[in-house]
């Protein structure tokens, strides 16, 4: 028996065969089925750019803006879950209070990842790293795929999570890419949440400066 990391009830851990095939290795379970049900996968129509749930076919308003800004070169973002209250609460506990153990729950939610040659996590800033003692995105994805650290983030006055929408969109570039001659092919950027897309587009900009010939897409657990 295991204890659920969210509700603390004990549950029987059965092997999830779907995950077994996708990741080949056995995945430990940390969350009971009742808690897992509270995370809702996207359904119905989703934006073809970022996977936000929308009423019509095509692109959401954010993606239409990015398309204009980047002359049609839209970031192809895959995202699995709705950003609902349960997801929000877990993220607050994980990021604001630095509850490391929740990286297991978040990793467990990811039952598929697009194929890529390099999986590049969006890094924490030095001050966040010091405050929490761990890198939030690295901690989640290191359980799933081999990660390549290609981005460095410098400190900002305010964290993305403390900003409103307007402030987020006006955020300045804080990423720079590490030069590694061996990198070519497909890069998948990994983050937790896609909010406005600002962070991921900045991450892509930084990578493209050093790796102009790479194909760069992104993945977030929620949008
Ligand atoms: Zn539970
Ligand atoms: Zn979109």
From TrEMBL:
SUPFAM superfamilies: PRTase-like
InterPro entries: ComF/GntX_DNA_util-trans (IPR051910), PRTase-like (IPR029057), PRTase_dom (IPR000836)
Homology family: Belongs to the ComF/GntX family.
Protein name: Competence protein ComF
Protein's organism: Lactobacillus johnsonii N6.2
């Amino acid at each position: 028996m295991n204890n659920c990391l969210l509700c603390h009830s004990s549950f029987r851990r059965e092997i999830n065969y779907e995950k077994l095939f996708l990741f080949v290795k056995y995945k430990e379970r940390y969350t009971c089925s009742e808690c897992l049900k509270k995370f809702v996968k996207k359904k119905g129509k989703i934006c073809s750019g970022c996977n936000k749930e929308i009423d019509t076919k095509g692109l959401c308003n954010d993606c239409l803006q990015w398309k204009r800004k980047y002359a049609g070169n839209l970031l192809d973002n895959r995202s699995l879950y709705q950003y609902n209250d349960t997801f929000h609460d877990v993220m607050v506990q994980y990021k604001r209070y630095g509850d490391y153990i929740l990286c297991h729950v978040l990793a467990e939610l990811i039952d598929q990842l697009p194929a890529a040659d390099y999986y590049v996590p969006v890094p924490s800033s030095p001050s966040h790293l010091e405050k929490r003692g761990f890198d939030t995105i690295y901690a989640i994805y290191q359980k799933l795929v081999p990660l390549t650290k290609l981005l460095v983030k410098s400190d900002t006055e305010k964290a993305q999570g403390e900003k409103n929408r307007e402030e987020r969109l006006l955020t300045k570039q804080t990423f720079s890419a590490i030069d590694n001659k061996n990198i070519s092919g497909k890069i998948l950027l990994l983050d937790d949440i896609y909010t406005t897309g600002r962070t991921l587009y900045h991450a892509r900009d930084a990578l493209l400066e050093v790796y102009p010939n790479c194909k760069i897409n992104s993945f977030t657990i929620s949008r």
